[in-house]
Each structure stands twice: as structure tokens, then as C-alpha cells.
């Protein structure tokens, strides 16, 4: 049956110039899915396009160009709905539109057996006044130095080609606007002179990103001066006429250092040995830190403080970790953690070497700044001090006073007892001597024995002869002993020990504490038979280079079966005498000051004469000279307690020779000038006196 009906509908039949016209042709029939139709679109009775039963579109010649440019479109939406669209409709698109539908038996059949023509629909396209409108904006109005600046200029109302120019005026700049870039009607691009160097801001781009939007992109803002006002100036040209519109927008470019701040905190300031502690470096800025490359460096100043901080480690934006060389012990026990705006450093197995002051330093770079060069901004944190508490010392040294009496030439032993100490600690001991010569004399270090048993003698006990007589021993785990072999009266005094308690902690030895013992007085007992030396004080003078004899004469008588030895001492004062040489009972001479061996010659012409001859007297030979004579009583192969005597000291003064005086005068320019010019000045004064008379 002939049940075919055709109708045309429009989304809007009254349009403005440039609007879109859309028409729908609806074919009404029964069982439409199994039937075949061919549709023809007509404008003011003229065919525009045909959609055959296969859905193939055929444009009439006069509409082909507009269809190719995308202004016209027609298609089969379904078997009963056909769509015709006119984009950017013009005045010529006004009129009556109809569609004709013809049914064929089979697709491709040229003969239809029924046709339907829709009623006409009137379409009116109203002309509009040619007036442009601009909308100017920035994709991100607030930027950081180094960010890309993207500006959008949306041009509306243009029906003809448009040319665009972008202008810029920096903030707080009274000067004229600066041309950034321009695009002609044909799309040609030109850059302002300030923006032609791609090495500063990158390669600028000005593109027409859509039919009505012109986009300007500055890849990398140089500094705060790239902020300010930006103008877009668009001009439409048509039939010799032009229409220009200007729009503007404001942009703020901030330095990356603005508001950048680092704060270092720690939950605890005092840490026990072996525990862990954590430092947190909190970073704040006026911009989103997760969008910029950021690095953190950890700095450490040991305690007691040195002149500068050591670099512990740096964490770079790529995640790379570089450890400093100054404090390598941190690397094996430190854990680093990072979030968007905070960094943490956790130290495990805290040791004494970890005590000190910590800081963090943050560096930020411009966005997309690869490879990383000089940072755009740097911020240092406050300092946080960490104190490490070591295990407590349990050392207790006996402090009781005691005394030891010995005879000259016999051995003596002085003990130092440790009451308590840690089980896993090691002990070192140092022996000191307080001489009886002066009440306020400083203690003299005899010998120190390290935890490993290595002895180290003090300066006054540096001679091998003395070191062989003073031996530091550890008798047991709690008893130290100082043995004085062949004790001499010069060894008298008060001895005491200083015990140090050491403990191995993680990576090194640490001193936990020390204890001081009580004083042990070493005294001598002398035999009834004593020697006597001259007790008269002498003061002698000798010219430099001459020879002088210092007397040491034994008075009285002594047993014939005795042997005598003599020791000479020298010093600037009585409390600081040093042994020079010893003349032993067998006649051998032991020089205790090797540098003076060639100038010292002891004399022993008789059994009671132990004088000393000093050759080539020099300035450094001046001082006090004293002798000591010891008597040894022979009984078979042993040497019992000897008797001894000390002489009074002789004061030796060295007098410079004439050549020495002259050399000293010549070496003193003021004195030499006085001697040379004094006679001349005296003659002049005498001449003036005669003339006046």
C-alpha cells in the first residue's frame, strides 16, 4: 500500500548570520526497517544533495565546494531519519527547505514505486553587525620563574581573516609596551626584538589553536620582569575595511626564593648510646613544592664545634644519593626518607661521634630545568644540637695515703688499686711524681701504660737510663704497680696514679671516666756512716770559649774497702736539675746529656776529688752545677746500701768575649749608629762652644 509520509523539522528556523542550521527529514511508514528509500534535499526548489538507498551522499556541483570546506554536511542517521546541516549559515542560506523520499524495491534500483515530498519549512538567516569581541586570559595567572607562560586570546564575531599582535608591559615599568609576537592574516609569525633570542626564554610559539583562539606560549619565564600586563590586539579585514579589538590580562611571576623556608626539628635532643634519633627537615614555600625539582643536603658539625659544617649526604631530585667524605661512619647507619615537603634523616646505633649540631639545606630549580644547573633558590634551616650520653663509668680507685721507705740503690714498689670497674672496659694507667723540692711544684709524668700495655714515658724520663729503672706493671686485673729499680735519693717524692676507663663503642674507643689514687710517699733511710762534701757556695765567671773547673771535694775519711761513684747535675734553678754524667765505681763514664759529651771531662786524680772540667764555655752553659758522691761498700759479689753526699751548687756565669760583644753590637743597628756618630756629635758641640766664647 501507499503509506509513505515525509516531513521536515528544524532545530531553529530563525538564525543569525554564522549560526548552524540543522534539518531532519523524517520518513514515516510501516515496517520501515525492511524497506529502501532514497532522499533528496531541496533549497528553494533546487536540489542540493542526494542520499541513495545505500547511504551514499552525492552533492550538486554548486554545493560541492562548500561541502568540501566543511560548511555543509548531509548523512543518513537511520532508515527513516536523514540529517542536513549548514555550518556558519549566511544570508544566502535563507529560504524554503524540503526533502523528497522515494521508495525502491531493492537497493540500487533506479525505479521507485512511490515518492513522498515533505511540506516546505521556511528558514530565515538574519544579518549581524560586524563587531569583534575578545576574551584574553592566562592559563596560570601566577607563575614561578622558569615556568611556561601560556596566554589565550579568543576572538569572536570575526567572519574574515584576523591578524593578532601580543604586547607586554613589565610590572612597575612606566615605559611603552613591548611587542612580543605577531601573526598575520596568512598565518606568518614574527617576534619582537626582545624575544628573538631562544637561549633566554626558549622558542616562543604563537599558534591558532582553534577557529577563534590564538595561543602565545613563552616556554620559560626569565625573571619577575616577565610578569605584568599583556595585551592581545586582533584585527579583522574584509572588503578593504578593518575592525580592531584589544583585550588584556595580568600575570604575576614570582622568584622561587620567595617564601622558601626550611625548619629542622627533632623529637629528642639527648640520645643514649646505641639508640636512634630522627631529624625532620620541613620545607615551606609560596608555591607547590611537588611541581619543582628539589634537593636536600644534610650538614653536621661535630662536638666540640669546628670552623665549619661537614656535608653528610645530598639527596637530588632524581633520587640519587651522594655521601660526603668527611664523616663516612654515617653511611652505614643512616636512613633517608622523602615526601613532597619534608625530608627526614634517621641515625641508628648512636655513637659518641654522632654528637654535634645538624642542619639541612634545601635547593630548588626551575620547572623542567634539565640538566640541573645552578639552583634557582636555596634555603638553610636552623641548627639542632644532639647530645649523646655514653654509658656511665663504674671506676673507683683506692684513695688512701701510704708511704714506702727504701735504701739508696735498693728497689721500691708503689701500688695502685682499682676498687671497681665495668666488666667489659679496659684500663690505662699514668704514674705521676710530686717532687719534694717545692710545695707548689707541678706533677711530673713518669710513664703512661695504655690499655694495650704500651708504655709512654714523660719528657723528664725520656733517657733510656731512667726508663730502665721505672717500670709500670699490671700485677692483676685490679692492681697496677710502679717499680723503681736501684732507687736514688732524687727519686724521692709523692707518687700517685691516674686510671682511665675505656670502652669500645660501635666504631671506636671512648673514655668513660678516670680515677685518681691517693699519694704514696717514697722515702729513703741512710746508714750511720755518711760522706761529707764541701758545703760552700761558689759563684765563678768564665769568658766564652775558655775552660773552667768545677770542684767536688770529699771531706773526712772513708773506709778503704769502699768504692765511690759521682754524678754531676746542671740546671737554671735548684728545682729543675738534670743529670749530666755519672762516673761509676769501675771508672767508666756515662754521659746523660749526649750533646755535651765532648765538653764535659770529669777528674778523679785522688780518691776524694771528683771535679768537673767544662771546656769551651758557652752562653748556654751558664747555670747551677752540683755533684753527688755515693759510697758503695763491697761485700763479696753484692753491693749493700750505699752512703751518699750532696755538694752545694756552684753558680757559673758566662762572660762574652770582645769579638762576641762586637758581633752583638753590629747585629744591633741602633747601638752601632750610636757608637759611630757619637764622636762626631761631640766635636760639633765643642766647636759651637768655642765660637760662642
TrEMBL record:
Residues 4-118, 119-254, 274-362, 391-500, 527-645 form the Ig-like domain. The chain crosses the membrane at residues 671-692. InterPro entries: Ig-like_dom, Ig-like_dom_sf, Ig-like_fold, Ig_sub, Ig_V-set, IgSF_V-set/TM_domain. Keywords: Disulfide bond, Immunoglobulin domain, Membrane, Signal, Transmembrane, Transmembrane helix. GO terms for cellular component: membrane. It comes from the Eukaryota. This is IGSF2 protein. It comes from Rhinopomastus cyanomelas. The gene is Cd101.
Amino acid at each position: 500500500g501507499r503509506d509513505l509520509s515525509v516531513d521536515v523539522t528544524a532545530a531553529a528556523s530563525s538564525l543569525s548570520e554564522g549560526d548552524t542550521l540543522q534539518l531532519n527529514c523524517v520518513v514515516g511508514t510501516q515496517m520501515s526497517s525492511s524497506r529502501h528509500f532514497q532522499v533528496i534535499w531541496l533549497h528553494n526548489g533546487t536540489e542540493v544533495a542526494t542520499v541513495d538507498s545505500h547511504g551514499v551522499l552525492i552533492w550538486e556541483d554548486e554545493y560541492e565546494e562548500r561541502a568540501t570546506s566543511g560548511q555543509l554536511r548531509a548523512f543518513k542517521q537511520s532508515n527513516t531519519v536523514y540529517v542536513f546541516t549548514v555550518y556558519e549559515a549566511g544570508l544566502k542560506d535563507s529560504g524554503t527547505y524540503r526533502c523528497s523520499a522515494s521508495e525502491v524495491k531493492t537497493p540500487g534500483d533506479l525505479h521507485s514505486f512511490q515518492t513522498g515530498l515533505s511540506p516546505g519549512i521556511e528558514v530565515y538567516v538574519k544579518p549581524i553587525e560586524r563587531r569583534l569581541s575578545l576574551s584574553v586570559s592566562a592559563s596560570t595567572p601566577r607563575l614561578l620563574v622558569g615556568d611556561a607562560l601560556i596566554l589565550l586570546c579568543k576572538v569572536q564575531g570575526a567572519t574574515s581573516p584576523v591578524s593578532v599582535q601580543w604586547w607586554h608591559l613589565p610590572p612597575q615599568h612606566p615605559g611603552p609596551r613591548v611587542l612580543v609576537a605577531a601573526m598575520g592574516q596568512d598565518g606568518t609569525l614574527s617576534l619582537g626584538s626582545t624575544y628573538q633570542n631562544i637561549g633566554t626564554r626558549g622558542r616562543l610559539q604563537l599558534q591558532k589553536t582553534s577557529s577563534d583562539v590564538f595561543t602565545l606560549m613563552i616556554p620559560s619565564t626569565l625573571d619577575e620582569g616577565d610578569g605584568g600586563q599583556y595585551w592581545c590586539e586582533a584585527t579583522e579585514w574584509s572588503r578593504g575595511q578593518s575592525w580592531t579589538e584589544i583585550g588584556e590580562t595580568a600575570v604575576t611571576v614570582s622568584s622561587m626564593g620567595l617564601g622558601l623556608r626550611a625548619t629542622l626539628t627533632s623529637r629528642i635532643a639527648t640520645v643514649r648510646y646505641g639508640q636512634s634519633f630522627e631529624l625532620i627537615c620541613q620545607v615551606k614555600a609560596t608555591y607547590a613544592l611537588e611541581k619543582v625539582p628539589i634537593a636536600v643536603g644534610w650538614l653536621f658539625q661535630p662536638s666540640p664545634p669546628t670552623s665549619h659544617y661537614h656535608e653528610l649526604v645530598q639527596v637530588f631530585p632524581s633520587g640519587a644519593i651522594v655521601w660526603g667524605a668527611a664523616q663516612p661512619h654515617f653511611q652505614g647507619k643512616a636512613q633517608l626518607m622523602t615526601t613532597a615537603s619534608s625530608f627526614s634523616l634517621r641515625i641508628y646505633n648512636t655513637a659518641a661521634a654522632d654528637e654535634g649540631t645538624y642542619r639541612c639545606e634545601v635547593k630548588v630549580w626551575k620547572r623542567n630545568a634539565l640538566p640541573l644547573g645552578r639552583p634557582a633558590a636555596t634555603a638553610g634551616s636552623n641548627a639542632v644540637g644532639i647530645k649523646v650520653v655514653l654509658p656511665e663509668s663504674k671506676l673507683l680507685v683506692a684513695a688512701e695515703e701510704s708511704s714506702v721507705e727504701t735504701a739508696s740503690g735498693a728497689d721500691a714498689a708503689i701500688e695502685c688499686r682499682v676498687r671497681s670497674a665495668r666488666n667489659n672496659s679496659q684500663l690505662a694507667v699514668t704514674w705521676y711524681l710530686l717532687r719534694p723540692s717545692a710545695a707548689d711544684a707541678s706533677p711530673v709524668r713518669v710513664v703512661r701504660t695504655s690499655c694495650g700495655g704500651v708504655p709512654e714515658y714523660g719528657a723528664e724520663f725520656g733517657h733510656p737510663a731512667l726508663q730502665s729503672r721505672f717500670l709500670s706493671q699490671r700485677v692483676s686485673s685490679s692492681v697496677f704497680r710502679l717499680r723503681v729499680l736501684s732507687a736514688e735519693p732524687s727519686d724521692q717524692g709523692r707518687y700517685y696514679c691516674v686510671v682511665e676507663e675505656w670502652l669500645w663503642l660501635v666504631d671506636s674507643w671512648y673514655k668513660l671516666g678516670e680515677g685518681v689514687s691517693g699519694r704514696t710517699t717514697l722515702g729513703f733511710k741512710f746508714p750511720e756512716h755518711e760522706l761529707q762534701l764541701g758545703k760552700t757556695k761558689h759563684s765563678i765567671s768564665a769568658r766564652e770559649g775558655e775552660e773552667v773547673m768545677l770542684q767536688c771535694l770529699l771531706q773526712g775519711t772513708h773506709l778503704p774497702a769502699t768504692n765511690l761513684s759521682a754524678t754531676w747535675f746542671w740546671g737554671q734553678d735548684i728545682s729543675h736539675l738534670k743529670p749530666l754524667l755519672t762516673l761509676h765505681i769501675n771508672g767508666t763514664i756515662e754521659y746523660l746529656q749526649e750533646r755535651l759529651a765532648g765538653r764535659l771531662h770529669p777528674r778523679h786524680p785522688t780518691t776524694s776529688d771528683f771535679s768537673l772540667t767544662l771546656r769551651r764555655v758557652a752562653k748556654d752553659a751558664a747555670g747551677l752545677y752540683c755533684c753527688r758522691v755515693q759510697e758503695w761498700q763491697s761485700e763479696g759479689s753484692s753491693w749493700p746500701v750505699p752512703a751518699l753526699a750532696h755538694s752545694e751548687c756552684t753558680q757559673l756565669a758566662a762572660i762574652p768575649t770582645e769579638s762576641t760583644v762586637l758581633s752583638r753590637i753590629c747585629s744591633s743597628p741602633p747601638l752601632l749608629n750610636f757608637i759611630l756618630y757619637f764622636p762626631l756629635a761631640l766635636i760639633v758641640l765643642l766647636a759651637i762652644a768655642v765660637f760662642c766664647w
